[in-house]
Design brief:
globular; 5 strands; 193 residues; single chain; 5-stranded mixed beta sheet; alpha/beta
Length: 193
């Protein structure tokens, strides 16, 4: 790994970045310090297919905050970056998750999406647990979110459902989950949580 300063227009967010999906993340908490001092902690990047360009494996919030400052009229200074050696997507995903788990813990659905990607690349539940300092049971619990209907998983993202309700629903088959959703959607029905 080497350190360098890279121009904003040479950076893009990697698909393996665990916060790559959806809207730009909220950067209100870091925007004042970025305005005043710039980026102090290097972004983790790796080379992508274009010569001299890099994709951000970890650091999307800092990148988003710098772009907000530039839109406000601030200078577009090169960002400090730690350039990873070329590796596979699993290595990049692990780097992204390690950095993000230290700061703002992602919701369990985001963890599930990324754990599933790691499992598909050949990582075992034990390896995932060891890499992220999770108890093996916690990894199993997060991977159990795959048993949920997609709509129930979506409901868990904005914290509309309690974690205990989600855990109980992972134990139910599709039919009881559909029945639970019908109760959840009916304003006049009692929906157990």
């Amino acid at each position: 790994m080497k350190l360098d300063f890279i121009a904003l227009d040479k950076l893009t967010v990697a698909k393996t970045n665990m916060r790559a999906k959806g809207r730009d993340p909220d950067v209100g908490d870091i925007l004042p310090s970025i305005r005043q001092r710039g980026v102090l902690v290097p972004l983790l990047v790796r080379p992508n297919c274009d010569e001299g360009c890099y994709e951000i494996v970890a650091g999307r919030r800092r990148f988003t905050a710098v772009n907000a400052v530039v839109c406000e009229g601030g200078a577009a200074r090169p960002l400090p970056c730690a350039i990873l050696d070329e590796g596979d997507d699993a290595d990049a995903l692990e780097a992204s998750m390690l950095e993000n788990l230290i700061r703002v813990a992602p919701d369990e659905v985001s963890q599930w999406e990324n754990f599933v990607k790691l499992v598909k690349t050949g990582r075992s539940e034990a390896e995932i647990a060891a890499t992220f300092a999770f108890e093996p049971q916690a990894v199993k619990r997060i991977l159990a979110l795959g048993n949920l209907l997609p709509r129930i998983r979506a409901l868990s993202r904005p914290d509309a459902l309690k974690a205990s309700t989600i855990r109980h629903l992972t134990l139910a088959s599709r039919s009881p989950q559909k029945a639970w959703l019908a109760l959840h959607d009916d304003p006049d029905a009692y929906c157990p949580t």
